[in-house]
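Ticket #4471: structure output looks truncated?

Reporter: J.K.
Steps to reproduce: submitted the chain below (184 residues) through the standard prediction queue, then opened the result file.
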Amino acid sequence: MSELASREQLRMSFVRWALVTVPGVLLLGLLAGASVPAGADNAWYAALARPGFTPPDWVFPVAWTILYILMGLALAIVLNARGARQRGLGIALFAAQLVANLAWNPLFFGWHHVLAAFGLIVVMFALALATAIVFGRIRAAAGWLLAPYLAWIAFAGLLTWSIHRLNPNADDLVPGAVSTQIDL
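Returned output as attached by the reporter:
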């Protein structure tokens, strides 16, 4: 037998990685999303002028759930590719783009920094694109699994930029989640 591991062993190794990465990425996304009220539950966001192409609030959790599952699967594929060149780089890029992703919700919905949130999306897109390219070099499927994420980030960037353009003073629209309501 010239193989180090059978196809079944390799498949089970991937499944074990996926059983960790998919729930892990989903949990991190859930925690970031729950860190501050979003959508209609956020008085500041509800008061913003939004472009006509803004999806209904229910679309966001559905889209992010699907995207986090795909991201977790892509990461599992790369983690399972032991010995692959650029594996460490791909994992580091994935972690960096995920940190940027998780920071966006508090920055936008919590601190109301629309322009900074747009800048973060630009950084997130660049990191996610680099991640997809490196993942694709390791395993093509891993790179392609990030394609919907890249499309959604681009859409989110357009949406955030449009909100900034429609609300140039959005930072001052409603007191932030971390501010007090006490006047001295």
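Triage note (M.O.): checked the attachment and the full token line is present. The chain is about 70% helix and 0% strand.
Status: closed, working as intended.
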